[in-house]
Amino acid sequence: MSPTTSDLLESAEYRLAQAFRDELLALTTARGRATISRLWAACDEMLRSGETITVAEIGRRLTSKYGGPKAQSIRDQPSRLKRLVDLCAAIQRKSEAEQHRVKLGSIVPLITDSTLQARVRWLEESSARDRQDALAAKRALQRLAPVRDLTPEQCYGPFPQNPSSSSGALSPNQSTLSEPEKQSIRDFLDPTFLYNEGLRIDEALGLLNDETGRIVMPVTFVRALRKISGS
User: What is the rounded distance in angstroms from the CA atom of residue 23 to the CA atom of residue 15?
Assistant: First the structure.
């Protein structure tokens, strides 16, 4: 069944995009607020009409109606304007994925071969465990770094000092993690914290679910976290 407009507007992805928009509005100039509001209105209109949201199409509509910003100007601000468009586009992608998702369990009765039935059941159970592992890691990280409570600057780095600048590039020193951020990573990698979350680190495999032994995070990612946090 196709998702309705109401489903899209009530989704977690829509609320995330809306919260990011509000953060941008609170941290910009009057001129910037006008641009963000127009961009949001264009995205919202396309969500409601079912048209595919792209930077190119949003830029075309804004240029036609207001004279800008053009698509390239949106791309030039990856942590602000383009990020907002990407979040809106993600709402559509999630709804399309939900629309075409088929539960494996629903096709088991249609399979006559017992070996194939067992294989499908195993895949369904494996998929459920993967989701549980990902959720456990997400909850652990959320407690250490509550993204919902962070500002766009905390998530993506400081904005350009000149609000009228179209460049979204950060200087090298702006990409350095702060000591509290490094400490949050060290806290996450702490064996006691991981144990309480049902996780553990295997030096050869990476972050594992302690009960099933399934890999939640590859060892190269664990090493990268250790390196950037100095642990």
Answer: 12
Tell me how far apart the alpha carbons of residues 26 and 37 are, in angstroms, rounded to a whole number: 12
Backbone φ and ψ of 207, nearest 5°: -85, 125
Please, what is the end-to-end C-alpha distance for the chain in angstroms? 49
pLDDT in tens, 131-178: 777 777 777 776 666 555 555 555 555 555 554 444 444 444 445 778
The tokens of 10 are what? 């009530």
Show the DSSP H helices in the chain as ranges: 5-9, 12-26, 30-49, 55-66, 71-75, 81-100, 114-144, 152-156, 179-189, 191-196, 219-229
Burial of 75 (0-12, 13-18, 19+ CB in 10 A): middle
Query: What does the alpha-carbon distance between residue 206 and residue 163 come to, in Å, rounded to a whole number?
Result: 42
| Amino acid type, 182 | K
